[in-house]
């Protein structure tokens, strides 16, 4: 019982969101985060490690002002979550196609200079990862059991494909970011629920 109290959200909130359910494919990069493989062949991520990494991620991002962070989600299941995160925190997000060159070509009108990038999946969001590497800023990536993690500075192991899982992740991130930045007093002050961050 003691253990669960240390989690950012109750154990069953994690379990219900399926944040720990991986894919049938596992890379050697992600093995350290895998707790077991189910009889149906799906890999299951270690909740303790998921929680630890989300904590590291939220503390790290909280050191940055909203205008210094960029969040990219090519994956549709993350769009509602990242848009609401943007609305509540002011952090710049791209839901959908990442516009090439916005980090590297200062002649573009859309050019921005973030200090850190978070991607919901390092594979569909690989162009954002490449650009971040070119300009030398840290990359945080939500990684499922099938992701490669080279070029990623901080891996957050989780189901990065599920609507509920992404909704819960961005809800926790929003709450912790707002609290750590002193924008809300306590976690309870966040009126939105994980459901608000979840695609229908």
Q: What does this 3D model show about the protein?
A:
The chain has 200 residues and is an alpha/beta fold. It has one domain (2-195): 3-Layer(aba) Sandwich (Rossmann fold). Helices cover 32% and strands 14% of the residues. The chain has helices at residues 2-5, 11-17, 47-61, 79-89, 126-135, 163-180, and strands at 34-37, 43-45, 69-73, 92-95, 116-119, 139-143, 154-157. It has a five-stranded parallel β-sheet with strand order 4-3-5-6-7. Strands 1-2 form a two-stranded antiparallel sheet. Strand 3, helix 4 (79-89) and strand 4 (92-95) form a beta-alpha-beta unit. The longest helix has 18 residues, at 163-180. The chain is globular, with a radius of gyration of 16 Å.
The gist of it:
The protein is an alpha/beta fold. It has 6 helices and 7 strands.
Poorly predicted residue ranges: none
Order of helices and strands: HHEEHEHEEHEEH
| Spatial strand sequence of the major β-sheet | 4-3-5-6-7
Overall geometric form: globular
Instruction: Using the coordinates above, name the CATH class.
Output: Alpha Beta
